[in-house]
Design goal:
Blueprint lengths: L3 E6 L8 H9 L2 E6 L20 H4 L10 E4 L15 H12 L5 E4 L1 H9 L4 E16 L1 H5 L10 E12 L6 E5 L7 E4 L3 E4 L7 H10 L10 H10 L1 H21 L2
């Protein structure tokens, strides 16, 4: 059985697909990462006419139409901070087209915010960032979703590390909620998914972000307590997010 190929956009060092990428591979995907912050070009077309350079070209394909889906990762910039990440308009254009039904996408944290921005949802900056482990749960729509059904009925711990907060796009389906930032997982159109939480992250990555990101910690939390709670939740983080990754690949395999 041939691998399902997924093109991944990584925005900065330390925000790679990590074990979510490993679980996608485990389920039968080939994960190809482009890093525009290192000069890799993001394809501008999805009809095979665009050429990829950098890591995608080194992986052996120049045609974007050979990819089954797009995965957009997180990052420290906001979804409209184009001066910081000048490739963001191109990503928003791709995600607008995903929401319109051209191709599937799965978008994490900044990726989820970019999808929201691309579909005209409001983005606000929270007074108090969310950092650490928060309990989330699937909605009734999530239980019927072709990907998030894999975690139907679950209340589960999730890694949050964000200051921007998104509203639900018009016509979007709320799939995961919880905390005082209620839009934690959603779908726009047939197959454009966004999350605020990080399904790829573990305690080591959280510790790395804490050491490099100047975000003010939530009241009562310290770097040590946040890393500890992530480590203690790890078994559930693996169980939930591995199921989500496998479900996404299963969905892609089932498409005509």
């Amino acid at each position: 059985m041939s691998a399902v190929r997924i093109l991944v956009i990584e925005h900065e060092c330390g925000t790679g697909p990590k074990r979510f990428g490993e679980w996608l591979t485990e389920a039968g995907a080939e994960v190809v990462v482009v890093r525009p912050y290192l000069g890799d070009e993001i394809p501008s077309a999805l009809d095979g006419s665009a050429e990829l350079v950098g890591s995608a070209e080194r992986a052996g394909s120049a045609d974007i139409d050979s990819y089954a889906a797009l995965l957009v990762l997180g990052g420290s910039a906001g979804p409209l901070e184009d001066a910081v990440n000048p490739w963001l308009p191109q990503v928003r254009d791709l995600l607008q087209r995903s929401a319109a039904g051209e191709f599937p996408s799965f978008n994490i944290c900044l990726g989820g915010e970019l999808l929201a921005a691309a579909t005209s949802a409001k983005i606000i900056r929270r007074e108090h960032p969310q950092i650490g482990i928060y309990d989330l749960h699937t909605t009734s729509a999530g239980e019927e979703d072709p990907v998030f059904c894999a975690i139907a009925g679950e209340t589960f711990p999730a890694v949050l590390f964000h200051q921007e907060e998104m509203e639900l796009p018009d016509g979007g389906e709320l799939l995961v909620t919880g905390s005082d930032a209620p839009i934690q997982g959603y779908r726009v159109g047939e197959f454009a998914w966004g999350t605020q939480f990080h399904p790829e992250s573990d305690a080591a990555q959280v510790q790395q972000w804490l050491s490099s990101d100047p975000l003010r910690l939530p009241e009562g939390k310290t770097n040590e307590s946040i890393t500890t709670e992530a480590a203690e939740a790890d078994a559930d983080l693996i169980r939930i997010n591995q199921a989500l990754a496998h479900s996404f690949v299963h969905f892609l395999r089932g498409r005509p």
